[in-house]
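Each record in this resource describes a single protein on a pair of labelled lines. With that in mind, the following record should read easily:

===
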Amino acid sequence: EPGERTILHAAALAYRQCPTAISVHAYPWKGCGAEAARLLIDAGVTPERIAICHADVAPDRDDIGELLRLGVFVELDNWGKEFTISAGDSGFASARFIADTERIELARQLIGEGYAGQLLFSNDVCLKCLLAAHGGGGYAHVHGTILPRLRACGMAPEVLTGITVDNPRRWLTGK
């Protein structure tokens, strides 16, 4: 989309004036993240200051691998979304959001392959049903539910601290 490329070029220009973190809201979920990351990198943005979100909606290991090889952060940010939105239901994107169990396995694989330093965990609470008051995991879902499940699977606490504390700090501050 030409307008989106223009915006990415503008973000890179702003970055060169004031280096800051850039979050790319990737949609459609497959394929466009790497194109956006390459455009930003080619325009002078340091890969470690780029985060590509929504890599875990309907994860494609080739797409994720390409992002990781580019050196950008990959966001697993749909924890708690375990449903399908069919086309036409809401005017919103349609997809099957993988279950947290599948997302945990994806995270374990990526960490096992040595990519813990490029992962960001978040939960994109963008629908009312995701709020705790409406039956969802709420804003505390990652820390209250997912991290304990990962620890129970044998994930070292220092790895999880790296993903949830050190990685966001490096992405946001460059340090």
